[in-house]
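Q: Structure for this?
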Amino acid sequence: MCLAVPGKVVSIDHRADPRTGLIDFGGVRKQACLEYLPDVRVGEYVIVHVGFALQRLDEESARASLELFEQLGLLDEEFGDAWEQAARQESGSEAR
Amino acid sequence: MKYIDEFNDPALARRLLDEIHATVTRPWALMEVCGGQTHSIIRHGIDQLLPEQVELIHGPGCPVCVTPLDVIDKALEIAARPEVIFCSFGDMLRVPGTDRDLFRVKGEGGDVRVVYSPLDALELARKHPDRQVVFFAIGFETTAPANAMAVHQARRLGVDNFSLLVSHVRVPPAMEAIMTAPECRVQGFLAAGHVCSVMGTTEYPELAERHRVPVVVTGFEPLDILEGIRRAVHQLERGEYRVENAYPRAVRERGNPAALRMLEDVFEVTDRNWRGIGRIPASGWRLSEAYRAHDAEIRFDVTGIRTEEPAVCRAGEVLQGLIKPTECEAFGTACTPRTPLGATMVSSEGACAAYHLYRRMTDGPAPKGSRIPQEELNSVG
Amino acid sequence: MADLAAEAAVDPANWTCPAPLRDQPVVVMGHGGGGALSAELIEQIFAPAYGNPTLAALTDSAVLGLGGARLAFSTDSYVVRPLFFPGGSVGDLAVNGTVNDLAMSGARPAYLSIAFVLEEGVALDVVGRVARAVGAAAEAAGVVIATGDTKVVESGHGDGVYVTTAGVGLVPDGVDIRPQRARPGDAVIVSGPIGLHGVAVMSVREGLEFGVEIVSDTAPLADLVAAMLAVTNDIHVLRDPTRGGLGASLNEIARASGTGVRLRERAIPVPDEVANACGFLGLDPLYVANEGRLVAFVPPPHAEAVLAAMRAHPRGEGAVIIGECVEDHPGMVVVATGLGGTRVVDLPLGEQLPRIC
């Protein structure tokens, strides 16, 4: 259902009906309808599906997710989690 | 930040996988709702990297798989008419109806065209005022705003020769139907991220609460999928059942308000048949009264077409992880990828088709950790 | 082709999402896509009508004994829309395609025939441009256009210009290159980045623009093949992955030889623009057409030397080993993904279509 790809708004044509913008998908450019993101600005990233920008991508959230992934193993090592450790001992090597 | 490469990083994938392996202590059955997620899982071989205890059940979120047979037959009927230019996403051209597909209609002289966007179809209608241009409006909540905009523009601009054959489906009622099935095995959901980009997440807390099932809104890149699985397993191991958003960069709680307003205007909720599953109440959209004049079913008088699905097909049970594909009497005999009887054999990512392919590769049972329901693990949980 | 036919008849499990009806009573576009439907057309219609051991060899060009020499012989028709695309035209394809089909037998291409089907109303200027492209490509490939023909069809009965070429060339002694010869252990080498031709043509059709210009890779490969054969005659298989892309070619080789193919995803050279355009349209670069690339199966002792010779040649600068031929899963192509999983690369059914799902 959901082949939607992130792209960067390169330009916006405010006179187009419906309002459209040129979106750059990593070097590939294509027009998309911006009507559903009325306040989107040039330079922002949006997620595009069948020629429509459906949502803007939030850079801060993306960075927070990646930082969380970076921390995963480390958090465990440093602080441990009593509940998880107990669970692990219980299950032995099964959980690898 | 490019939002793609960063979420494909193998080292971070390893961290997420290690965390999942370290967290899981018991078998859990998770359903990834969206076909796009299934695609990503298979494309990257993610299912093979998970602990044995984590089973992924492929959900019904593929319009190709679930668009019912009678709608396909209606499309074929309309597309064959000489005055019609029939426009569709590429996905639907090979989907078999009762006795043919859109490719065949095209081969027999029908004017069938693949478009990238419904607005391309609207443009064709404006270029060919002497022809009837019909757009095959299939898909979930992700695709509905685009199709809604096309018909909204058609009405506003008076493009009377443009109509939609609508077969829109909505995800939450399908999730509800899956959870209320008597032998439901799904213990956690990876909810469809792009559906939530449009709709938000407000439909899910009630579902999670009622069925005591974790719902994790999940994206589509490998790290997104792994994070969705990690969070779902984490909840399950702790006996929790909450809605979590593991795709925050693209999903806001309230969705996309402008798109939701358009959907409200153009569509109204209706019951729909799902191929391989059956009728699900309030699980679809049809054009609202104001747009009925652009309804291709009425315009071409095909509302009477009714087609029954083959009774032998047990795709519904497979979709819910209740049976292994090989336990179906028709598997590999009456039902093959060449002659599919149901949704799960139609899509190459459907469980039956996947099983068929893997069996060919290994010349035996599916390999460990493949995308096959691991019913062996069903004794617990 | 008998091998492919037998495989397909025993196990028809080749489809893309969604699985299609394959018992079509009429010709559909997929019959020309170079995938399973094309194979079925040959198996069910052509082979019964005029099949013979030569035709059954499933090579890009037939190798024939004639007057003591070994002659490679091949023909191909070229229908492309648009006629002119970034990096070339139907004229370039018509010459390079047939030259490459001959080269995939190890032959040195020598003579080509050319036949035009022109549509009434097409500007002579367009015909002139195509003809000049043919001339230039023939010169670049070192072949002579030895004979030709022209027909005209009524307006509306053709797509402007269709071109058919046939070609002959001599196969050197000691060279035996065909898909059946793939053996477990062979290195699988691709001569450069994939997907450029298909994406260049599609970009025109789908209205895509590129930050960097994407041009077709159309090019003659006979010289590159000669450079490879200068290292060793013992090259097992050569194939130019045109329609159906690398995925279709490797499946055909796996089936013809009864071996498996295992690729490393991260080794496969896919340019960023191709990957992004494919991601955007929902296509798999492995199934996108190339017109100036080859894939080679080379036994291990020669693999590094052949690879070095390819890299030293302008048409093979980007050559890399992308995987190997294996005993496991005979007839199937499997990719080890970047994350460490695996997936099956099946024979595509017909042409790829942009998808939303």
